[in-house]
Amino acid sequence: MTADELRQLIASSLACEHIEVEGDGRHWSALIVSAEFAGLRPIQRHQRVYKTLGARMHTDEVHALSMKTFTPDEWANQPH
């Protein structure tokens, strides 16, 4: 799997205002901004992303994924 494929997979099931994905083919990091995260605790946000990946999280297709998740308002207040 490539970073573009993983980005598209996440974006196909989660309305993202901004998404960045980096990794080596098995170990990934993602920065995801979505209004769907509003009112969710960090673990719930991660679970929401894992749900978009389905069985890929249980295979070596996506061995590990670290995430930073923000709502649009939270993202607007981040230094970038």
Automatic annotation (TrEMBL):
Which superkingdom, per the lineage?
A: Bacteria
* Species of origin: Ramlibacter montanisoli
Tell me the protein family, please: Belongs to the BolA/IbaG family.
Coiled coil regions, renumbered to chain: none
Pfam families, A to Z = BolA
Protein name from the UniProt record: BolA family transcriptional regulator
Which PANTHER family does the record match to this protein? Answer: BOLA TRANSCRIPTION REGULATOR, BOLA-LIKE PROTEIN 1
